[in-house]
Amino acid sequence: MYKILITDDSGTARMVIQRCLEMSGREDCTYLQAKNGQEALEIVRTQKIDLLITDMVMPEMDGKELLKAVVDDPAISHTQVVVITSLANPALENDLIKMGARMIVGKPVSPPKLQECIDEIFPSEEEEQ
Amino acid sequence: MKIDKSKVQDCLVPALTEALEGLIFEEIILSEISPDSPFDNYQPAMWAKISVKQPELGDFYLVINKDIMAEFTAAALGMFDEQPKEQEMLDSLGEIHNTACGRIMALNCGAKTIFNLTPPVINSDTDLLPSSNHVTICFNAGDNQIFLLLPDKFFNHINEL
């Protein structure tokens, strides 16, 4: 099972993202949620998270700071990071990919957008054949 | 300040449409642009404010009637049999506004600019809404009206594009 952590200060956004992921039909994923970067970092450090999905604008620790903290820590730097943001444009995407993000997804999210993302990061057995 | 309606149509409607259709499956249509804030007859309402810090454009507001927001929240959260709680409505309003502001800036700032927004501030008191230096734009979302209050600076910015 792949463990996916969804980080967003909005409960609505977390629920919409998780629902879109669940609608992708992948049964090999379980989901956890965090309200900000600090909370997410603690979970990534204490549990084996395969994919961290994070918003950009959050109180306490924002998405960029969270990405940097994950990439700079050798113990967790293997964690894949996808940034979901309403601020998505090519300049920001370049910046975040250079920092170590695997993918940037623009808000609003949709099931096809997130399915494409998950399938690229964790190819299903069907796709691998 | 003179506002070109076709510019508003081009710059704002696609952004707001993306945000609302993506989250609550509601199409929007530009209704009218006004220097006034016609919220006395639009109660009870709630609003969200997001400040655009980079470039420095000021405060963007989204004002929605509470009953309409209850419908929007239920749609966003997939709640078909229960009424959303006040906190869920406030949170959904913030998320809708965050998505709308991000799309407005992404569509109007060019591909090479990294822009910066603050987290949303939510309130129910329409007396606290700005009475000057902002333009009120009314949209129809289905049978309902929603309002964006945008700073004059934003229109100066898009007029230069």
How would you explain this protein's 3D organization?
The complex is a heterodimer of chains A (129) and B (161). Chain A is of the alpha/beta class and 129 residues long. Chain A contains 6 helices and 5 strands. In chain A, 45% of the residues lie in helices and 20% in strands. In chain A, helix 1 links the parallel strand 1 and strand 2. The two termini of chain A are 19 Å apart. The mean pLDDT of chain A is 92. In chain B, strands 1, 2, 3, 4, 5, 6 and 7 form a 7-stranded antiparallel beta sheet that branches. The model of chain B has no long low-confidence stretch (mean pLDDT 86). Classes of the chains: A alpha/beta (129), B alpha+beta (161). Chains A and B meet through helix 1 and helix 4 of A and helix 2, helix 3, helix 4 and strand 4 of B.
Shape descriptor of chain A reads globular
Helix fraction of chain B, binned, reads 25-40%
Low-confidence stretches of chain B: none
Structural class per helix/strand content of chain A? alpha/beta
Radius of gyration of chain B: 15 Å
Quick one: biggest sheet of chain A? Answer: 5 strands, parallel
Element order of chain A: H for helix, E for strand: EHEHEHEHEHH
Largest sheet of chain B: 7 strands, antiparallel
Number of helices of chain B: 5
Number of strands of chain B: 7
Strand content of chain A: 15-25%
Query: What is the H/E string of chain B?
Result: HHEEEHHEEEEH
* Beta-strand percentage range of chain B: 25-35%
Number of helical stretches of at least 4 residues of chain A: 6
Taking pLDDT < 50 over at least 5 consecutive residues as the criterion, the unreliable ranges of chain A are none
Overall pLDDT level of chain A: 92
The chain pair forming the largest interface, with residue counts per chain, is: A-B, 25 and 33 residues
Range of helix content of chain A: 40-55%
